[in-house]
Each structure stands twice: as structure tokens, then as C-alpha cells.
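Our preliminary data section would be incomplete without showing what the modeling component actually yields. Below, a chain of 294 amino acids is followed by its predicted structure, encoded as C-alpha cells that our downstream tools consume directly.
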Amino acid sequence: MQYLWRPMSQHFGSDKEIMTYAMYSHYSAPSGFDVDQNGNSSPITEDNKAGKMQSFKDFVVEMSSHYQGNHILIPMGDDFRYEDASINFSNMDTLLRDFNEPGIKLKYSTPSEFIRASNSDNIKWPVNYDDMFPYADHPDAYWTGYFSSRANSKGYIRRGSSNLHLQGLAYTALSLKNAYAGSSQEVSFNSIQDSMGVLQHHDSAPGTEKQAVADNYNALLARSLNMARDNLFNALQGSLIESEPNLDDMFECGRMNATYTSCPYAEADSYYVAFVNPSFNDQSRPSIKTKGVP
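Predicted structure:
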């Protein structure tokens, strides 16, 4: 249940490892302690206190038998909990105050504090080198659908990631010219960073969120990409575009699933098309290349 995980040991040996702690039973509160306005357990009262304390003791003893060391981590909560956190904390305060069992100490903690306490036990942890996929939470119940669910959203996130890297290059060039702080490009860059941060959620990229949440994720990214469309090439102009005449009216056509006639410049006699590879790999100085059409 606890081990050191070295998934890149062939390249880094023991230099890169993760202290890993497998949850005892999901990340839910113990049975009988899901006290929340969306929960299914009753709070601790004077009438049920003795039974609640005994139940929690039994849970701790059973859980401890599956772990090494003197410390265990017990999550208190679940999805869609803590909307009215006073309910949760009032019950936990009562549990911590009135629980009295020799050899067992309850306290509020954090993941970092728990890991430090576990390491203080000086245990030689087992080492695991494999990945964890696919997960299964019941016999023959493997979590694999999210590898392909909401394929369009997955592609949209990938596009957002590419845009994030491209903006990073452009705004680095602006920063070197002291032309970044307070600019519209800064606002745009902050927006795509915020959106891509939200989209790293474990229900976003896998596509396991509810439909309304998926719509909200896509709306956030669309807003950021639209903002980038208005600002990105202004940042690129004169910073990374090489050896071309003045290109003041550059525009990103976001309609990648349409024909070229859908773009604003389709009727022009001639125009430039810009190509960019936002990767730093094998490039001494990332740049934009342009080509005249026709």
C-alpha cells in the first residue's frame, strides 16, 4: 500500500522517485462519517457518540493492519462535499475532541506533513517500477473508457497546449524588449495559462466530467484562444517573424475543420501564410517562417 515509485528508473535511477500511498478505500470518508449536506451519515451526538467512537476505532485498527509504520492517512470527504464546510468541520472537531483510545492519536494533517511523519519511521519502503494503468476498482471493472472518451475535447486541449507554448515563445521575446508587462499580450497569456491549468483536472482531459462541466471547460478554452487570436500575432510581429515586409494585419484562422474559403483572406489576390513550430527541440532560436500565396 506504500512504496517508492520509480517509473523512469532506466534513465534516472533513484534520482527521480515518488513516495506513493494507495488509498485504503477510494478517497471517501469512513462508513458512517460522511457528514455533509450531500452526505449519507448522521453527525455525532450525545446519543450515538459511544457507537461512533467505537466504529471509528475499529476502522483505524483494521486499516492500520494493511500499512507499514505508525501513521495512516484517513480522508474525510468525497466528490461534491464541503459546500457547507461548517457541517463537516463541526463533526470532525467533535471526533478529534472526544475520541479517547490509548495508542491512537487523531489530528488534522496535510499530505506533506503525513509524508514527513511516515519518513520519520525510517522504514525501508518497497520499490515499484511499473505504471498503474489500467486501473480497476472492482474485479473486471477496468477504467479504460477515458482513453478515448470526448475525443474532440482531447484534441481541443492539445490545441490549447500548442497555443500556450507558442504564446510563451512570443511573450518571452517581448519581455526581452521590455514590451510585455501590462500589455494586452500579458492578459492573453495569463488567460491561456489559467485555462490550460484548469483543463489538467483529472476529469477534464480524460473526459469523465458531466456534460455541463465539459461545456464550461470548452468555453473557457475557446475564450482564451479567441483572445490569443486577437493578440498573438501582434506579439509575434517584429519579434520572431524573419525577413519579410510589414505584416500589420496578420490573423489566425481558427476554422481548421472548414475550407480555406471560410477564412477572411480567401478572396485576397495574395497573402502570406505563417508556419511555426513552438518546440525548442533542435532549434537555436525558434522563429516564424512565412510563405507568399500565390
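Residues 151-176 form the longest helix (26 residues). The beta strands are 2-5, 18-21, 127-128, 135-138, 141-143, 271-276, 288-293. Preliminary results of this kind motivate Aim 1 of the renewal.
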